[in-house]
Each structure stands twice: as C-alpha cells, then as structure tokens.
Amino acid sequence: MDPMPRALKTLNWLTAALFVAALYMVFIYAPREAVMGDVQRVFYFHVSAGWVGAVAFLVTAISGAVFLARRDPKWDRLAVASVEIGMVFAFINIVSGAIWARPVWNTWWTWDPRLVTATIMELIYLAYIMLRQGIEDPDRRARFGSVYGIVAFISVPITFLSIRFFRTIHPVVIGSGDPTAEGAFDMTPRMLQAFMFSLLTFTLIYVTLLWHRVRLARMTEHVEERRMQLTST
Amino acid sequence: MILQEAPADTFNYMVLGFAVILGTMGLHVVSLLARFRNLRRDLEVLDEVQAGEAAATGSASRMRTSR
C-alpha cells in the first residue's frame, strides 16, 4: 500500500490547527447569546455538520453519475466514502439540534418539517449502506449504489428547503427574518465570523476524512485482490 | 425565556452538545484508524502465507531436481 502522501499529512495538520482555532472562535471569540445563553454555541458546529452532510451527499450523487458514465471504480469508492462521512455529520447535526432544542423549545424532539426531513434523509442513506451490503457482485453493487445515490440526493434539497416550504418553528439561518421562529437570533459580527470559520473548518475536515476514507477503500480492495490471488493458486 | 434579565443557564446543554459532536467525530476517526490497522495486519498475514507457499513450492521443486 502507498505511504501517506505528503499533501495529506499537511492537510491533517492544517485541519487539526483550524479545528483548534474554530474551538477558540466558538468558545472564546464569539460572545454568549443574550437569551439562549451558552447552548447557542452548539449552533456553530450544528449548522456546519449539516452543511458537511449536504456536501457529502452531493459528492455521492455526482460521483454516482460519473461512475455510470465512465464505469471507473474509483468514482464508486468516492461515493461510498462520502456517504459514510455524510451520515456521521448528518447524525451530529440531528442530535446536536435535539440538545439545543431541549432548553430553547422545551422538548428534545418535535414533529417539525426540518427535523423530520433531516431524519428521513439520514435513514435514506442508511438504506444505501444496507443495500450495498446486500449485493455480492461488485459491478452490480456499484451500479445500484450509483443510481440510489443520485435518487437519494433529492432528500437533501427537500431537507434544506423544508423550513421555507412548510410552517416550522426551526430558525432560518440564511435569509433569516421569520418572527415566528423559536430560537432565531441575530448574529453579531463576531458570531458571524465564528460561524463562517466553523463552516470553513468543517469543510476541510470533510475533505481530509474523505481522502483517508478513499485510501481505506483502495486498501480494502487491494487486500481482497491479494486474498483472491492466494485462494486461486 | 421572555422578559428574562440574564441569559438562560444552558451551560450543561452546551457541554452535552459538544460532547456528542466531538465524541461522534472522535469515534469516526478511531473507527478509520482501527480499519486501517486491521487491513495492515491482514496484509502482513497474506505476506506470511505467500512467503510460506513460495518456500514450500521452492523446496518441492528442489527435491524433484535432486532426484
């Protein structure tokens, strides 16, 4: 197996440094929110995790389309790797949102359109993983996975736009202004800077994790090929 | 939270929120590292098996030529 590329090593350190800086921005640089108090700080990573989830599922859909066009397995590896990371961050988004909601909405969970669509999106991608595990033939698995990844992506814009389409108590971060939203707040310049920095940091975390996850997939295939060679001799 | 004079005391929820965020991210990284380690071990085992087979094939052919 190839040793870790120098660019990836540099990316590891850069990501770690940015993550520490993001923690500083969130806990020290950004002021405490005047009404919600400390729990509002969860918002910076909550939204960033949701952003990474959406980007990861977009990458899966694009990779799936490219795989169907070119039939190069590297695009399938990228799609699977991206789904795994997307699921982790979508999970963080949902659970951190529930923790934020407890003191602000006075409940862990409510059947709000955003919460429901986000959870359905997570379950759709969980089904993607299960579908792939149920197919033995690698080519068939990649083809089915690609088509599923493209179709499943419909859940992402639905989740994003659900708070604009339906009546909801979920705050709208981008283009905020709905006075009925429970927990909505105006960001001070420092809050906005912490938020943008968190988005940047989480995007970089995604890229770093994706690179590692793709390398892991390549290594898994290499081990499988070696196994097959040994059993066939 | 209406008519409150000071921010609500939600420190514990913040701690819980970041514990979940950092914990989940940490678990994913640990899972990646564990999978890399397992694959490296598998490769080592495969190398050993292959070397053993090569040695066995070599000694068998040597025995054949010596006869």
Q: If you had to describe this structure to a student in words, what would you say it looks like?
A:
The complex is a heterodimer of chains A (about 230) and B (about 70). In chain A, about 75% of the residues lie in helices and about 0% in strands. Chain A is mostly helical and about 230 residues long. By secondary structure, chain B is an all-alpha fold. Chain B has a domain at about 35-65. Chain B has one helix and no strands. The chains are: A mainly alpha (about 230), B mainly alpha (about 70). The interface of A and B includes residues 33, 40, 49, 85 and 103 of A.
List key phrases describing it.
heterodimer; A: 233 residues; mainly alpha; 7 helices; B: 67 residues; 0% strand; rod-shaped
Task: Itemize the secondary structure elements and their pairings.
The complex is a heterodimer of chains A (233) and B (67).
Chain A: H1 6-29, H2 42-70, H3 73-105, H4 113-133, H5 138-152, H6 155-165, H7 189-232
Chain B: H1 11-66
Number of helices of chain A: 7
Question: DSSP strand (E) fraction of chain A?
Answer: under 5%
Task: Report the helical percentage of chain B.
Answer: over 70%
Bin the strand percentage of chain B: under 5%
In round numbers, the mean pLDDT of chain A is 93
Radius of gyration from the alpha-carbon trace of chain A, in angstroms = 20 Å
SSE succession of chain A:
HHHHHHH
Mean pLDDT of chain B: 87
Largest sheet of chain B: none
Instruction: Write down the domain tally of chain A.
Output: 1
Total strand count of chain B, please?
0
* Tertiary shape of chain B: rod-shaped
Low-confidence stretches of chain A: none
Number of helical segments with 4 or more residues of chain B: 1
Tell me the span between the first and last alpha carbons of chain B: 95 Å
Oligomer: heterodimer
